[in-house]
Design goal:
The chain is α/β, with parallel strands linked by helices. Helices cover about 40% and strands about 20% of the residues. Helix 1 (about 10-20) crosses helix 2 (about 25-30) and helix 1 crosses helix 3 (about 35-50). Pfam families: HTH_1 (PF00126), LysR_substrate (PF03466).
Length: about 325
């Protein structure tokens, strides 16, 4: 141990002498004899380079420096005493930090549900949340800058061997379209959402607003496959990297968009959501993390996610 740094034993001795104002009583309190206690206090003063006590043959009193130092020493000892329970909490995943990224679609149903449950059960865990597209999340995971991510399947094949995948929810795509266009397709409701289906063929001339393929290739291909299955080739009008932006562009009348059904909770004036008449594939959202690095905090979060996956339509 560095001789210029006081140890906790010396600090405890200092507090005992300061509180008893007597070496003999302090030694008895510490279950030791007086000479080694006096030697330890002298050693502490030499280490710190200051006198902590003014001594006479009959009394011992704190110097001004000693009196000012006493509250700090008590704080240090209290922090040291808290190390064991803190370490145990960290080992159980009850404290620590979790860096979690999420796709924008998760923000309208899945993410609040998971965070509410996790926060209630692990209130001492500090969450670091960041919104990012699936491709960015995978790169951040591989680089070790986040602990886990909520992404849309599938994972990039080049990284699949390094990552673990837990599917959470599957949901169909729905169409988001301007209210004026919805009226022209014969919709009988002006509500933001109703169950009256709309065929892609009725929207064939409307520009498509979509994610750029290089940012979300799996999601992009699913949307294109929907059009292909209907015998259509979409006319891409705009690309945007955030779901909020895509829906805002729909609100501005710039086209239509295929979005996960949960996004209907994102309300925008002039936007309506309808199910599709055609059979559409389900969008799968799941949790991804580095297989080789699962901290206790991450393990606790995975268990929360696993519990919800069974009720949110994830495959068994």
């Amino acid at each position: 141990m560095d001789s210029t740094i006081p140890d906790l034993r010396q600090l405890r001795y200092f507090v005992a002498v300061a509180e008893e104002q007597h070496f003999g009583r302090a030694a008895a309190r510490l279950s030791m004899t007086q000479p080694p206690l006096s030697q330890a206090i002298r050693a502490l003063e030499q280490t710190l380079g200051v006198e902590l006590f003014a001594r006479t043959r009959r009394s011992v009193e704190l110097t001004a420096v000693g009196a000012d130092l006493l509250p700090e020493v008590r704080r240090i000892l209290a922090s040291a005493q808290a190390l064991r329970p803190l370490a145990q909490s960290l080992a159980r995943g009850e404290a620590g930090v979790l860096a979690l990224a999420f796709v924008s679609t998760a923000d309208y149903g899945l993410l609040p549900l998971l965070l509410r449950d996790f926060g209630a059960r692990y209130p001492r865990v500090r969450l670091q949340l960041v919104e990012a597209t699936s491709d960015v999340q995978v790169e951040e995971l591989v680089a070790g800058r986040i602990d886990a991510g909520l992404v849309i399947a599938p994972l990039p094949p080049r990284h699949a061997a390094q990552l673990s995948w837990l599917p959470i929810a599957r949901e169909p795509l729905v169409i988001a379209m301007p209210a004026e266009l919805a009226a022209r397709t014969g919709s009988t409701s002006a509500d933001d959402w109703c169950e009256a289906p709309v065929s892609l063929r009725d929207l064939a001339d409307a520009p498509l607003i979509v994610f750029p393929r290089h940012l979300a290739p799996g999601f992009y291909d699913i949307i294109m496959d929907c059009y292909g299955a209907a015998g259509l080739v979409p006319r891409v009008g705009q690309e945007a990297i955030q779901m909020q932006t895509i829906v805002s562009l729909v609100s501005a009348g710039m086209g239509v968009a295929l979005v996960p059904q949960s996004l209907r909770h994102l309300r925008r004036t002039g936007v309506v959501y309808r199910p599709l008449a055609e059979a559409v594939p389900a969008i799968e959202t799941g949790l991804v993390w580095r297989s080789a690095e699962v901290s206790p905090v991450l393990a606790a979060f995975i268990e929360i996610v696993r519990a919800h996956a069974s009720t949110l339509g994830a495959p068994g």
